[in-house]
Amino acid sequence: MPLNAEARRALWEWLSVRPRVAAEALFVGRRGPLTPAGVWRIVAGAARRAGLEKVHPHALRHTFAARLLREAGADLVQVAALLGHQDISTTAWYTKPSAEDLEAALERL
Fold first, then answer.
1. Cα–Cα distance between 44 and 102 in angstroms, integer?
2. Per-residue pLDDT in tens (0 to 9) along the chain, 109 residues
């Protein structure tokens, strides 16, 4: 999986302090490799502490895809590859405009 410079830097920093465990998992907790449920709990807990609602790992994935399309100029084929989608119609879901997108379009008239 390709990563941008900021993500690579953060990953190297994590690897320098990551607990050493027998497992080859990249992300580990006190009891070993993080499970999908463990990741969900961490993300939801961080969101709750930040006062955010409806934040979970898939919401972060959706934001990643939407920002690639809207802000980074990526096309659907690139985003599909980064998300691991086999069918580009799955990726097309991320092109659905938000209420803010529609409002901004009207304001540009």
1. 28
2. 889 999 999 999 988 888 776 667 888 877 788 899 999 999 999 999 999 988 999 999 989 999 999 899 999 999 999 999 999 998 988 888 888 889 998 999 9
Name the DSSP letter for residue 1: -
Q: Decide: 32 and 21 in contact? Cβ < 8 Å.
A: yes
Q: Give the separation between CA 89 and CA 72, rounded to whole angstroms.
A: 20
84 token code pair: 């691991």
Look-up of token digits 């097309």: 92
Concatenated DSSP letters of 3-38: --HHHHHHHHHHHHHSPP-SS--SSEETTEEPPHHH
